[in-house]
Amino acid sequence: MSARDPVADLRRIAFLLERANEATYRVRAFRSAATALAALPAAELTERARTGTLTELSGVGDVTARCVAESLAGEEPVYLRRLVATEGTDLDEAAGALRAALRGDCHTHSDWSDGGSPIEEMALAAVELGHEYVVLTDHSPRLTVARGLTADRLRRQLDHVAAVNAALPEGFRILTGIEVDILADGTLDQDEELLARLDVVVGSVHSGLRDERARMTRRMLTAIANPHLDILGHCTGRMVSSRPAGVTGPGDKGHRARTRAESEFDADAVFAACAEHDVAVEINSRPERQDPPKRLIRRALEAGCRFAIDTDAHAPGQLDWQQFGCVRAALCGVPADRVVNTWPADRLIDWTRTHA
Ligand SMILES: [Zn+2]
Ligand SMILES: [Zn+2]
Known about the structure:
CATH superfamily of the largest domain: Metal-dependent hydrolases
Mean pLDDT: 91
Low-confidence stretches: 242-256
Number of helices: 13
Bound molecules: zinc ion
Number of strands: 7
Distance between the termini: 66 Å
Shape: elongated
CATH class of the largest domain: Alpha Beta
Structural class: alpha/beta
Order of helices and strands: HHHHHEHEHEHEHEHEHEHH
Strand order of the largest sheet: 1-2-3-4-5-6-7
Radius of gyration: 25 Å
Largest sheet: 7 strands, parallel
CATH topology of the largest domain: TIM Barrel
């Protein structure tokens, strides 16, 4: 086995200890050992490891000396291996806690637009998952390929939802909503009166995704400033090919898995506007979307935005994809109190009403 870089391994250990919030003296022990050893000629390092005299150097103790010996022998130091394993656990815990904090899903589709199942089936699957609510957000008129709902069909859907709600178990309800297209000029593709009446309005760009940067930025800023908008859906429109293990093709219409680059826009301006107008940035959990990418989630977090971790489910089983969004949110350090669907339904609605 060829030798590893012992200095790099020590620095990595220091980094992981720091990240896990371990005591400063432990972090410093590895970092000063790394500094001391980096200054040493390679031949002397090897010789001292062989003769067991590394600890004679200032800043190098028994634990760090053992790590160096293991690295030089070509093995990942046991200490490092344990930290890497724990690191995974911590992240899983953070993602799990976020998932456990979610009370509902703000972006789902039924067979009224391009989903595969009736509203009742989506609702029952959400009940099974332990949700307190699910927001039904079928598409708007211009998205004809996805059978977007005209104003009349949406009105009929609202009556239908009221009837379905009356028959659902106590403690669960379907909230009304829409995934409204953000049109080329930034206006929203549905009647003003209906947008005002719905519990939750998610706005997404589905056309002209290759708009040039300044134009796309203006378009998004206009939509975000619209008093009806509550959540900005899958903001970059990207499609990634990779899928988490265990997930096969989505098999639903309207969301074909193919690669598509991110739309170009001024992310700082867009997230600043979301923070100003209190519009939540969606973390779309669909494996082929993973939108926004992590670097943009971090920027939105820094800008002070709220988030909604949603599935954009087009079938009942996809309602369980929220965990994928939670993993990405946890990786970016998104705290639960910034996520609007950790709130009970009434609080969520109080918040969306602040947007008219
Ligand atoms: Zn969409
Ligand atoms: Zn959608």
